[in-house]
Amino acid sequence: MTSASDRTKLFHALHKPGPLALPNAWDVASALVVEAAGAKAVATTSAGAAWSLGAADGDHIARDRAVDLVARIVAAVGIPVSADIETGFGATAGEVGETVRAIAEAGASGVNIEDGLGAGQRDVAEQAERFAAAHEAAPELYVNARIDTFLRGVGDPATRLERTLERAAKFLEAGASGIFVPGVTDLETVAELAKGIAAPLNVLVGPGAPAVAEFAKAGVARVSLGSAVAEAAYAVARRAAEEMLTKGTYSSVENGIAYGDLNALFKS
């Protein structure tokens, strides 16, 4: 395994030109599976991580539990790890800085910080302070600034692109490394975002979205599956439980990773 510093430098470089494809993980086993599949980096999903720790998504787990999970994933894989830390596990910019410092000390190469739009919406200046605190706490980390204008349908659709670009500019000025705009996958809008943002653009994908190669042509630097992989995994668990309890059969668990193959991913 290379040093944390080397992995962080590599993680920054993977965005240029990209696209960096990230099938998000939520625990050590899923991170090892993602690495074994050939991913160049591991990014966690905050939703999947929270669910695996027995909590709902949305800043409901304690910071130390989130940091501990990141440390375990970093120790298990040999590629860069980016941690989704929800809105930063802190009410203030200073507390967000403390979280990011702890994540850096855990060996992560990047963080994803949510916009805070929606309930308890933060204005752009307040949110920029949080990104500034994150950058100051760990200047070497890749700070992915999530902007939820499209995801949450904030404001007038006619000015949504403009509003997103304005927020992106402020967050980059505050020290963010890249911009994450979930909730939009149409290539025309994505291309406008990529053109208007002076940093790597990350989009959220799923069934029905254009292929990675198409996003690359539109200027996207990073493509994430978010919580979709965890949701699909838990769907298998539900189907298997329902099938066994109602029909008494077991076909839902066909085509799983063989026990020996999965067990072999873990270091002795």
UniProtKB/TrEMBL annotation:
Pfam families: PEP_mutase (PF13714). GO terms for molecular function: lyase activity. This is 2-Methylisocitrate lyase, PEP mutase family. The keyword Cytoplasm does not apply. SUPFAM superfamilies: Phosphoenolpyruvate/pyruvate domain. PANTHER family: CARBOXYPHOSPHONOENOLPYRUVATE PHOSPHONOMUTASE-LIKE PROTEIN (AFU_ORTHOLOGUE AFUA_5G07230), PHOSPHOENOLPYRUVATE CARBOXYLASE. Keywords: Lyase. It comes from the Bacteria. Signal peptide: none annotated. The keyword Mitochondrion does not apply.
